[in-house]
Amino acid sequence: MEHIHNKFNPYAVARESVYAKKGMVATTQPLAAEAGLEIMKKGGNAIDAAIATAACLTVVEPTSNGIGGDAFALVWINGELHGLNGSGRSPEHISIQAVKEKGYDAIPKFGWVPVTVPGVPKAWAALSKRFGKLSLKETLRPAIDYAREGFPISPILARFWNKAYQMYKKEEDYDFAAWFETFAPNGRAPKVGEIWKSPDHAATLEKIAETDALSFYEGELAEQIAAASKEAGGFLTKTDLEKYETEWVDPIKVNYRGYNIWEIPPNGQGIIALEALNILKGYEFTTKESVDTYHKQMEAMKLAFEDGKLHITEEPQMRYTTEQLLSEQYADERRDLIGEEAILPEAGEPFGSGTVYLATADEEGNMVSFIQSNYMGFGSGVVIPGTGITMQNRGYDFSMDETHVNALAGGKKTYHTIIPGFITKDNEAIGPFGVMGGFMQPQGHMQIVMNTIDFGLHPQAALDAPRWQWVKKKKIEVENRFSYTIAQELRQKGHDIQIQLEPNSFGRGQIIWRDPETGVLSGGTESRADGHIAVW
């Protein structure tokens, strides 16, 4: 990708990409990025750095992820790409009927009902065991130290923490006492620059480190989680925790203009980004800032998303295979639906997934695309007393319609929003990329890939470019930096364009590209967050 390295950044944020040779870590929190680089300097590789960074993020950005969440990773090592699915299953004894008996017609956002088995601790352990150079004790040490000794609260972190505090204060149907005790002990959210400590979180991380995560699934921590669930009438049991295993999976891809774009297979929603790119590669794009470019992108994404919402669940239970959804024939059929006017999208029938993202790279050529999340900020709002563990609410995405492919059932993985991305060309790694943020993620992936490959933007410019996202039907939200003239012309094509003033509605991304010839790394970090790139 040499052609992207010298491209001028035409967008409002006056930052250029960062370059390095020995190592690079990009994520939303400076302390976490620097912790990952510190581990690399101590003899760790990109995988160790990713684990250290991810663990630190549970401490220094608890508004977006936690120990009780899920994780996915794409790992490039020794010339091969590996996929890790660290998403959890629903409790064995949950069912649509059981949820209805608790008085719910739809799965609630908060409380124990939407809680699924957390995958994060075993994902760290699995990565460390298979590819790491250092022990989990070593890679989790920076996170443990920050939790015990404290760290100053950054601006965007403080903003989201207070937002969560205000939301939980207004909720009257759930017991958030443990959350308030853990995250607002002074009767408020912590303020910018204030030192925050979490000794319970530190102790939990130490137990995970000392047991290679077994304490969380079989030992003391598992017993505390199961006890809290039982006391609150939740479905999650210690047996659910004991049975859980992460899964090594074969990444899926499409070839886009000579580059292979890789994603984790379903139950993740990465296939949506790939389907949209598969549709769009049938067009030639010469100008990024044009009505025609945006129109075709939006139409392709709408069609791909409708397919995803109808078809994605745990892969063995999908009605159509990944190969069918990403076939050239199906891309042609979907492309034929795109005309000059905005359409109301519908799913097709082919025949024949609150989050943190990080990217790491080392001098040996190893690279990691890693994402973890509790979902919706702090997740379910459930905190296990005395542990600092916030439990995710991934079960919220299950359907209560028994005929739906993603219908709620015991021991099942749901449609999952969090997705890491990766690009290769001619069997060489170009690098990891990702855009966190719920259903924005596949849309962000598509926009970054096209910004890079079609429009030649360097990593920082590719991230800084104004974003848009399809919401539903013909509704498209655009950032306030989006061209007003183009927005008006898109409205004339039938798009319901809405200008959104909240920048964090459009996700937060990171990119690291590697020059296959020189090994030089170039990176971009999110200007919409407290983003940072640590380099060596």
Description of the molecule:
This enzyme consists of two polypeptide chains, which are synthesized in precursor form from a single polypeptide. InterPro entries: GGT-like_enzyme, GGT_peptidase, GGT_ssub_C, Ntn_hydrolases_N. Belongs to the gamma-glutamyltransferase family. Pathway: Sulfur metabolism; glutathione metabolism. The chain is an alpha+beta fold. The chain has a domain at 1-210 and 246-255 and 353-437 and 456-467 and 509-536: Gamma-glutamyltranspeptidase, small (S) subunit (Glutamine Phosphoribosylpyrophosphate, subunit 1, domain 1, 4-Layer Sandwich). It has helices at 30-41, 46-60, 96-101, 120-131, 136-139, 141-149, 155-170, 177-183, 199-211, 214-217, 220-232, 238-243, 270-280, 291-311, 322-325, 328-335, 441-453, 459-464, 484-492; strands at residues 18-20, 23-27, 70-77, 80-86, 151-152, 195-196, 247-249, 252-256, 259-263, 355-362, 367-373, 383-384, 389-390, 421-425, 428-436, 468-472, 475-479, 496-500, 508-514, 521-525, 532-535. The strands form 5 sheets. The chain has a 7-stranded antiparallel β-sheet. A 7-stranded antiparallel β-sheet has the order 7-4-3-11-10-2-21. A 3-stranded mixed β-sheet has the order 16-17-18, with helices on one face. The chain starts with 17 loop residues before the first strand and ends with a strand. Residues 2-6 have low confidence and may be disordered.
